[in-house]
Amino acid sequence: MRLRSAFAAALGAALLLVALPASASAAEGQFRYDYVTVEGYAATGFLNSPPSGECVNLPGVGPENPESGHSPKNRTDAWAEVFADADCEGASFPLRPHTGGASERLKVRSVVFH
């Protein structure tokens, strides 16, 4: 009887582990970019330890702002792929982990980390 209870408990624990969602991984570090606000002020946006594998639309350069962000700096431990348009659409450009910064000519509105 004890063996059966122990087996049932172990099986229940294993099923619980399988049913739990996997924790989301994140790129460690900071991703930074510059932009001009709708009011015309220079600003710097950043993402701290952004999620991996999902598209992130960059704050401050959404549909309300006709100006894209620029000069992205990938100071995370993951590759970043920046996109010219929101929702990871349009032209893309990869940025190595721990890079200083890309040209001001590189326009960005969204990013995904790999």
Estimated share of beta-strand residues: 35-45%
Instruction: Characterize the biggest β-sheet.
Output: 4 strands, antiparallel
Determine the number of helices (DSSP H or I, runs of at least 4 residues): 1
Mean pLDDT: 84
Distance between the termini: 50 Å
Helix and strand content put the structural class at alpha+beta
What strand order characterises the main sheet?
2-1-4-7
Order of helices and strands: HEEEEEEEE
Low-confidence spans: pLDDT under 50, at least 5 residues? 3-23
What fraction, in percent, of the residue positions are helical?
10-25%
Shape: globular
Radius of gyration: 21 Å
Number of strands: 8
Provide structural commentary.
This protein has 114 residues and is an alpha+beta fold. Helix content is 16%, strand content 39%. A hairpin with a 3-residue loop joins strand 5 (80-85) and strand 6. The termini are far apart.
Task: Provide a quick synopsis of the model.
With 114 residues, the protein is of the alpha+beta class.
List keywords for this structure.
about 110 residues; alpha+beta; disordered N terminus; four-stranded antiparallel β-sheet
Could you outline the blueprint of secondary structure elements for this entry?
Elements: H1 2-19, E1 29-36, E2 42-48, E3 56-57, E4 69-76, E5 80-85, E6 89-95, E7 107-108, E8 110-113
Antiparallel strand pairs: 1-2, 1-4, 3-8, 4-7, 5-6, 5-8
